[in-house]
Amino acid sequence: MSHIISQNTPAYGNRDKITINANSSIIKGDTANTSSWIFSNNHIGTHIDSAFHFCQNGRKTFEIPVEEFYYRNVILVDIPCTEAKLINVSDFDTVSENIDPGLELLLIRTGYENYRAIDKYWDDNPGLAPELANYFRAHFPKLRCVGFDFISLTSWKFRPEGRESHRQFLCPPGNNSCILVIEDMALKNVDSDIDWVIVAPLFVEDGNGGAVTVFAKIV
Question: Which of 184, 152, 156 is nearest to 169 (CA)?
């Protein structure tokens, strides 16, 4: 459920890029093939946002116990979008009726993956409304993570609301739990139920998020 990392990977706001260069090459007579991978921002490609991304005292990625990256109760819902909007409670109410309240990982498919090769993917993307965070906590108290097939929780056209969404999901007030966020997922080819999902992040010292490989068993 992760896109391949490439130099064509789209970036939020079209501000960042990934550069891949060969350091050594067997074809050129070197002993081995090696390369440099340069990310101008760690929040590019299929990646996770951990709490430290938006709250200074939030957990860093490597501080999250590894078992929390394993999800047994997973659902994929379809909420089609063709332009920038904030997906809100009323949108979700149309698909939530039969979802197990023990849900651990929610995947939202909008169809925006089809625009990933053009500017529309980053400059006209949907996002999640801030009030969805507490709606999810109220209806699905075991929910630990939300992932989706668009570039960011923040819609490029609703940036103030997107910043608040990040705060509401990642670092809510009081005793409310953090809901991790996986952005820019590959969900187009999921055509049956999901048995389990494993999210494998990079554990980096700074730990505010970064690239993930997402494995799933489809049944």
Answer: 152
